[in-house]
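Hey, can you fold this one?
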Amino acid sequence: MRKWNYAVAALVLPAMLLGGCAEQLELAREQLGLPVEDKRTDDQIISDFLTAYQEGNFEAMEPYFDEDNLLRLFCQGQENGGEMAEVYKKVWELTKDFTFTAEAVEGKEAWGEVTLHLQTNEIVSGIPGAMWSAIQAQTENGDDSFADLPGWLGDALQTGDPIDEELTVYVSHRSDGDRIDSSACREMYEQLTGGFYDYIDMTMTTCTAENDSYYVAAQGDSIVGMVETAVQTEGTEGLTEEDVQAYEDGFQAMTGVAAKAGLREDGSVELRFGVDFDQASSTALANLGVISDRVNSYGGYLSLWSTVDSFKADGMTCETNDFGSGAAPEEE
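Sure. Predicted structure:
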């Protein structure tokens, strides 16, 4: 260890003697593999980060991400390919032309506090309606309208209402580099992407068993929509078209719920049931046994992973598709 320290001193000292320049010292540190001090101010770091987004220079942005920052998926997903890559690229095209100013807050430099004024447009107001339409279509027709998450998600993106906000953001200085914290700066990330930040980690999980299947859309661990298809083979003797129509009619007045029933040639009945959980009444769903019986809550929201564990315990086979985004957890 002493020899290594001596070598460091031997290399740094000549650099300091040759004019005593700070630039020479930084060069020596770089040659030794030591951290080179970033002399940019916090507002310059924020400005450089946002400019990198405008230019599509995602490699320059990634060093500032926490591990849980969803923009990491957004940036990497555009390079990884897959169906979500096209959605992410469309988001960037719709949001890259924003304007901003960033100014360090005087007296708050120790906290890395920066005032950011950002002007852009939201692009996600059509997503809730697009998901509900897809749920209704798959429930009615038995097709893949809802299962095609990248399709209806991407089609819903469009330039909407203007965003003109002044935000407080923070640069966190750590031993391993600077970070623009994903929690403290969440509002910036949401507005930067026109509101799409919350949709970056969307997935579609399919759970199947004999005569029963589920398509479950989730944002992270939070379930937002579902379509179930079940075939009932027992107790269906003598049922008529009027009987199955009565089943459908029983759900007509329920907001955020779609239902379809049909007699099959073998005498069984196929039932399809779709739910938009942002619209539907949790009380009504609990009374139907949809929540807690089939879809499980956890910590105040409907949990995908808790629900999948429950389905698997009942013998179902489940597969989560992130369409190339990397959002789905690796199978244990």
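The longest helix spans residues 2-17. Let me know if you want another pass with a different chain boundary.
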